[in-house]
C-alpha cells in the first residue's frame, strides 16, 4: 500500500510539472478546453489549491505549483513507516528458507526426548563409556541399543541378575580392573549377541556360568580362578580367543575335557600360573598356544597330540629340562618355537626334520654343545623352510666352537644370535 501511494504521488507531480512547463512555453497552442488543461484544473480544484475560473485559461502561478508538489511529497512521507537500519543478521535471515514476513504464532510442538545416558557417563553412537568413575554398581538407564559398554577401572563388586536385562544388542562388555567377586548365573543370559567379554583384573574365583554362545573372545586373566571345570566352556563353540593367564591354576585343577567344546578356538594363553604340564585335550583348531611363565618341567610326545594346526608354541620361562623325541612330529605346521629361559641341556631333537619351522628361541638355557645336524638336514636340496631366527645366547656353549656349517639352512647370518654365557 505504501509503495502504491508513493508511486502514484510521484507520477502525479511529474504530470503536473510537465503540463505546467509546456503551457508556459506555448500558451497559444492549446485550445481552452484541451484534455491536459482540463485535467490540471480538475486536480487543483479537487485539492482546493486555487479556484479555477471557467472563463480564463490560466494555470497556477509558479510559486503555487511548487507548493502543490511539496504538499504531495509531504503527504507521501507522512504515510511512510519509521526507517529501520538493517543489520547483518537481518540480511542473513532474509536468505533463510521459510523466513518470510508471515510469522506463525501458537503453541510450539513438544521437543522429542533425547537418548538416555547414565549420569557422568559418555554416550556416542551406541557406545557407552563409564570408565574411571569410581562406580560401585552397574549404572541404570543404559540405552537399549548400546553395542559397547565400557565399565573398566571402577569399584564394581557384583554383577546382578538384571544389570544387563535390556541390552540384547550388546556386542562388547568391558569390566576390566574392578572388584567383581560374583556374577549372577542369569546376568549374562540377555546378551544373546555378545562377542567380546573382558573380565580381567577382578576377584573372580570361578569362570562365569551361562556365558552367551555367541561369544568369540573371552579374557579372564588376573583373577583368582583355581579350577576350570568341564562345564565351564560348555556350548561355547564360537570362541576364537581365550585368555586365562595369571590365575592360581594348578594342573590338577584343569578337568579333563574342559576345552572340548571350543571347536573354533585358535588362540589360548594360560601364562603365569602354577600348572606343571601342558593341559590335555586341547582343541585341534589351535594355531597359537602360549604357556609361558608356568612350572612345566618336560614336554612329552603325547602332550601336543592332535595339534596339527599349531603354528606358534610359547613355552618360555618354565622349568623344562627335556623335550621327548618325536614330539615335534605331532605339530607338523609349527613355525615358531619359544623354549628360552628353561633348563634344557641339548637342542631339542627333530628340528632338522621339521619342514616348516623357521624361528627357534633357545637362549638362556643350559645347552653346552651344538652339533652340525641339530638344526639343518644333511641334504641341502630338501624342502625344509629356511630359518629366519635362531637364538642361542646366554648358554654355556662356547659360540666359537660352533661350526659354521651348523647354520647352513639359515636365510641370513644376521638371524643367528650367539653370545657369551653368564653364570647365574
UniProtKB/TrEMBL annotation:
<feature type="disulfide bond">
    <location>
        <begin position="121"/>
        <end position="130"/>
    </location>
</feature>
<protein>
    <recommendedName>
        <fullName>Decorin</fullName>
    </recommendedName>
</protein>
<keyword id="KW-0325">Glycoprotein</keyword>
<dbReference type="InterPro" id="IPR001611">
    <property type="entry name" value="Leu-rich_rpt"/>
</dbReference>
<keyword id="KW-0654">Proteoglycan</keyword>
<feature type="signal peptide">
    <location>
        <begin position="1"/>
        <end position="21"/>
    </location>
</feature>
<feature type="disulfide bond">
    <location>
        <begin position="117"/>
        <end position="123"/>
    </location>
</feature>
<comment type="function">
    <text>May affect the rate of fibrils formation.</text>
</comment>
<dbReference type="Pfam" id="PF13855">
    <property type="entry name" value="LRR_8"/>
</dbReference>
<dbReference type="Pfam" id="PF01462">
    <property type="entry name" value="LRRNT"/>
</dbReference>
<dbReference type="InterPro" id="IPR016352">
    <property type="entry name" value="SLRP_I_decor/aspor/byglycan"/>
</dbReference>
<dbReference type="InterPro" id="IPR050333">
    <property type="entry name" value="SLRP"/>
</dbReference>
<comment type="similarity">
    <text>Belongs to the small leucine-rich proteoglycan (SLRP) family. SLRP class I subfamily.</text>
</comment>
<keyword id="KW-1015">Disulfide bond</keyword>
<dbReference type="InterPro" id="IPR003591">
    <property type="entry name" value="Leu-rich_rpt_typical-subtyp"/>
</dbReference>
<dbReference type="InterPro" id="IPR000372">
    <property type="entry name" value="LRRNT"/>
</dbReference>
<keyword id="KW-0964">Secreted</keyword>
<dbReference type="InterPro" id="IPR032675">
    <property type="entry name" value="LRR_dom_sf"/>
</dbReference>
<comment type="subunit">
    <text>Binds to type I and type II collagen, fibronectin and TGF-beta. Forms a ternary complex with MFAP2 and ELN.</text>
</comment>
<keyword id="KW-0433">Leucine-rich repeat</keyword>
<keyword id="KW-0732">Signal</keyword>
<feature type="domain" description="LRRNT">
    <location>
        <begin position="116"/>
        <end position="148"/>
    </location>
</feature>
<dbReference type="GO" id="GO:0005615">
    <property type="term" value="C:extracellular space"/>
</dbReference>
<keyword id="KW-0272">Extracellular matrix</keyword>
<feature type="disulfide bond">
    <location>
        <begin position="376"/>
        <end position="409"/>
    </location>
</feature>
<keyword id="KW-0677">Repeat</keyword>
